[in-house]
């Protein structure tokens, strides 16, 4: 009989996916991540694991869990998992793409608007009782979003969803990605390919939608900020370490760029102290990208389905280490 461990609280409804399968599920009813040694000990006898992006699944963890056949991450990003080590150990890794695309794109756009139009500053100003009269030179003077140039770093599902939203704001959309779209797709989406330097030099807003890889870590460093317009703003809803946070704080203080809207941080949940001090045109959120009730429920259900599928001999819909696909399907 297969057993599944859920490392932290999820949406309970997701457990319905296991009904009628005979699979036993042990849900840890706690929303704080376990320290590595405790997670290893807790998961060591299970066949399946549902985990979150705050759980580190590395070679040491995998060695401590010899029965494990599947790790389902409740997130589209899986940089918390050593996928090559999982593949070597014959453990399937799954993520939750698709179901969070629109919620994350909505949040990226909300962050862009909030930063450009200084919405949190206006809210704080009013609540402090400082709104005494309307004036032409309003304290929270912002910049236009409509008609501006948006540079997308990464054009996967979420980047494309942001591009579609930008069309409604009459924005010019540039993108940079390792893979260039066919010309017809570019035309249909209304995006133009740019080399990284050109994207930085031309964009009024640069929004990050790439995965965290060795090649993207600290891609936004002091040199990148120096190449951006002094009026430009950086939006990051992808992964914190893609941006060198100390270099970003320095760039903002020195006026190399004008603003930043960040939903993710380099050492989450820690935020660079210098960044925290900056309040004008800097909006900081606690990793809310996929945080709508519907989306989080669908992410949890998808993770549960993936574990169920692997443990019942089926290929899951969202297998990351596809090299294992053939091994997962039960024989006749
Ligand atoms: C992800 O899915 O990778 C996000 O960071 C959380 O929704």
From TrEMBL:
Oxidoreductase as UniProt keyword: yes
SUPFAM superfamilies membership: Formate/glycerate dehydrogenase catalytic domain-like, NAD(P)-binding Rossmann-fold domains
Domain of life the protein comes from: Bacteria
Domain D-isomer specific 2-hydroxyacid dehydrogenase NAD-binding: 109-289
InterPro entries: D-isomer_2-hydroxyacid_DH, D-isomer_2_OHA_DH_cat_dom, D-isomer_DH_CS, D-isomer_DH_NAD-bd, NAD(P)-bd_dom_sf
D-isomer specific 2-hydroxyacid dehydrogenase catalytic domain boundaries: 5-321
Classification via Gene3D superfamilies: NAD(P)-binding Rossmann-like Domain (3.40.50.720)
Keywords, comma-separated and alphabetical: Oxidoreductase
PANTHER family attached to this UniProt entry: 2-HYDROXYACID DEHYDROGENASE-RELATED (PTHR10996), GLYOXYLATE_HYDROXYPYRUVATE REDUCTASE B (PTHR10996:SF283)
Family membership: Belongs to the D-isomer specific 2-hydroxyacid dehydrogenase family.
Record-given protein name: D-glycerate dehydrogenase
Organism: Pseudonocardia zijingensis
Lineage: Bacteria, Bacillati, Actinomycetota, Actinomycetes, Pseudonocardiales
């Amino acid at each position: 009989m297969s057993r599944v461990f859920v490392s932290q609280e999820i949406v309970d409804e997701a457990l319905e996916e296991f009904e009628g399968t005979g699979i036993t599920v042990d849900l840890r009813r706690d929303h704080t991540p376990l320290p590595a040694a405790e997670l290893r000990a807790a998961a060591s006898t299970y066949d399946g694991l549902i985990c979150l992006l705050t759980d580190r699944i590395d070679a040491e963890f995998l060695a401590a869990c010899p029965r494990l056949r599947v790790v389902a991450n409740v997130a589209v990003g899986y940089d918390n998992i050593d996928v090559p080590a999982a593949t070597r150990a014959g453990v399937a890794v799954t993520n939750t793409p698709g179901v969070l695309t629109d919620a994350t794109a909505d949040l990226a756009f909300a962050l862009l608007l909030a930063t450009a139009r200084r919405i949190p500053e206006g809210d704080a100003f009013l609540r402090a009782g400082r709104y005494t009269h309307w004036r032409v030179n309003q304290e929270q003077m912002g910049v236009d979003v409509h008609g501006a140039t948006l540079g997308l770093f990464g054009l996967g599902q979420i980047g494309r969803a942001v591009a579609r939203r930008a069309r409604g704001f009459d924005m010019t959309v540039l993108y940079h990605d390792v893979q260039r779209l066919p010309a017809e797709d570019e035309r249909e989406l209304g995006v133009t390919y740019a080399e990284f330097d050109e994207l930085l030099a031309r964009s009024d807003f640069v929004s990050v939608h790439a995965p965290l890889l060795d090649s993207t870590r600290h891609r936004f460093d002091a040199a990148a900020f120096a190449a951006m317009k002094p009026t430009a703003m950086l939006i990051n809803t992808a992964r914190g370490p893609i941006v060198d946070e100390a270099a970003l704080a320095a760039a903002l203080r020195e006026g190399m760029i004008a603003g930043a809207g960040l939903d993710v941080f380099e050492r989450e949940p820690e935020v660079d102290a210098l960044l925290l001090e900056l309040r004008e045109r800097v909006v900081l959120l606690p990793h809310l990208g996929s945080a709508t009730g519907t989306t989080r429920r669908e992410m949890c259900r998808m993770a549960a389905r993936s574990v169920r599928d692997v443990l019942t001999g089926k290929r899951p819909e969202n297998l990351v280490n596809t090299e294992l696909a053939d091994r997962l399907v039960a024989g006749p």
